[in-house]
Design brief:
By secondary structure, the protein is an alpha/beta fold. It contains eleven helices and eight strands.
Length: 264
């Protein structure tokens, strides 16, 4: 089980698959690198794919700290440096995309190509209200209710229809998935505080913004804002798939991203 020790002693669980140009696949708020399981094998045919669990989640250290998107990005930067990479391709989904914005703005030399998947640059009233509700669910009703409500927000209805048993099994293990609710609550506060919109014009990495048209967590207009504000950025919008579209349309996701990353 590969673990990388951060400067404060906490450890990040990570995996590396394949060989070629380094590609960091960075998950969202849940922080579990297994979000990318459907895509790792295919991408590892052309890239050295690195996935990690965010600090505070899954197999990494469950640190009781005050979380921020900048802290999450710094943890990942330490991993990049620790693995000996000067520059990496970065594909960040949702919170992972917020982290990618931070790195592309504050450490531009580290990011080669930037893929921003179902993400946002500044919280608005919709996003704030959504996560106020998710915070209340976790705080008042507990992990199982939080995961049940999250599944409805993250996934398209047809996917939920077809994966009811899987979702029930995940909810049954909710206390293992979220052993310390306070960490999740701090991470939610961190993403709601994320605001890099006024600095997006500083991004110099070639940028592709991906999303699904029916995403109800980070609606299409967030992607449109990213493309409008990042110099030279372009968008690819899938017809459906919800917030978790990379696991619904994985082949299309890999095809579009691979084509972009292989551009000179």
């Amino acid at each position: 089980m590969p673990l990388f020790k951060l400067r404060d002693g906490a450890e990040l669980y990570y995996e590396k698959h394949g060989s070629g140009p380094p590609l960091f696949l960075v998950p969202g708020l849940g922080g579990d690198g297994r979000f990318w399981d459907a895509n790792v094998e295919g991408l590892a045919k052309r890239f050295a794919v690195i996935v990690h669990d965010h600090r505070g989640t899954a197999r990494s250290t469950l640190s009781r700290i005050s979380y921020s998107v900048e802290q999450m990005a710094d943890d990942a930067l330490q991993l990049i440096e620790g693995l000996g990479y000067e520059r990496v391709h970065w594909c960040g989904h949702s919170t992972g995309g917020a982290m990618g914005q931070v790195l592309a703005i504050d450490h531009p030399g580290r990011i080669d190509h930037l893929v921003l998947s179902s993400t946002w640059a500044r919280t608005d009233a919709f996003f704030r209200r959504l996560f106020e509700v998710r915070t209340l669910m976790l705080r008042e009703l507990g992990p199982a209710a939080y995961l049940k409500s999250s599944a409805l927000a993250l996934n398209m209805p047809a996917w939920v229809r077809d994966h009811d048993a899987d979702l029930m099994a995940a909810e049954a293990k909710a206390n293992e998935t979220i052993p310390i609710p306070e960490i999740v609550l701090s991470r939610i506060a961190a993403i709601v505080a994320h605001d890099r919109q006024e600095q997006l014009q500083k991004v110099r990495a070639p940028t592709l913004a991906l999303c699904a048209r029916d995403d109800t967590v980070t609606p299409l207009y967030f992607t449109e804002d990213l493309v409008r504000l990042i110099p030279g950025a372009r968008a690819y919008v899938l017809a459906d798939g919800g917030h978790a579209y990379p696991n619904v349309h994985d082949a299309e996701f890999r095809r579009v991203m691979t084509s972009f990353l292989l551009e000179s």
